[in-house]
Amino acid sequence: MGGAEDAPDYMVSTSYKNLAELDIEKEGVWKVMENKLGVKKAEQMRNDFRNSLDASWGYTYILNKEMSK
Fold this sequence. Notes:
single chain; mainly alpha; 2 helices; flat
């Protein structure tokens, strides 16, 4: 999760079975949007999203099975 202090939060999330899956090359969210919506619309959405960010922050989470018991 992440975002500016007084702005809505935006998130892109991908689950992985294990850490080795992090090494697999996959299409990014913008490429997926280009394939679905076309380059012009994806570029517009990308620019709108980037313009909405101000003083953003973020976290990366990993499951710790020992703590999840």
